[in-house]
Amino acid sequence: QVRLLDSGGGSVQAGGSLRLSCAVSSVTYWNYGASWYRQAPGKEREFVARIVRFSATTYADSVKDRFTISWNNGKSTVDLLMNNLKPEDTAMYYCKSSDYWGQGTQVTVSN
């Protein structure tokens, strides 16, 4: 069974940075790529970023130029570097690969 483990969330002030990590097997990653989604309270889960193979990436407009998704082959993780965080980025962040989801990691951004 595929298992994804999300980590790296926390609380920061607006303008700060966080790096999220999703541990996923390299076999799963190379076959399906991986994505990050987020869900704020009272809202639907939304797409944030996706990476396939070496570096083919896609971003939601709301995070473009602030977030960077990458594959760390040595650690077998999909990382999401989040810069210039805004209060509206506050949400539970989930990693997804194939049809499997991580357990989520909370990101809270305050003014």
Any overview of this molecule?
This protein is mainly beta and 111 residues long. The protein has one helix at 26-32; strands at 5-7, 10-13, 18-23, 34-39, 46-52, 56-59, 67-72, 77-82, 91-97, 100-101, 105-110. It has 1 helix and 11 strands. The strands form 2 sheets. Strands 2, 4, 5, 6, 9, 10 and 11 form a 7-stranded mixed beta sheet that branches. The protein starts with a strand and ends with a strand. 32% of the residues are buried. The model has no long low-confidence stretch (mean pLDDT 96).
List the SSEs and their pairings:
Elements: E1 5-7, E2 10-13, E3 18-23, H1 26-32, E4 34-39, E5 46-52, E6 56-59, E7 67-72, E8 77-82, E9 91-97, E10 100-101, E11 105-110
Q: What are its keywords?
A:
mainly beta; seven-stranded mixed sheet; globular
Please outline the major beta sheet: 7 strands, mixed
Question: If helices are DSSP runs of H or I spanning 4 or more residues, what is the number of helices?
Answer: 1
- Give the SSE string: EEEHEEEEEEEE
- Portion of residues in beta strands equals over 45%
Q: Percent helix among the residues?
A: under 10%
List the uncertain runs: none
Structural class computed from helices and strand pairing: mainly beta
User: Separation of termini?
Assistant: 41 Å
Which radius of gyration do the C-alpha atoms yield? 13 Å
| Global mean pLDDT | 96
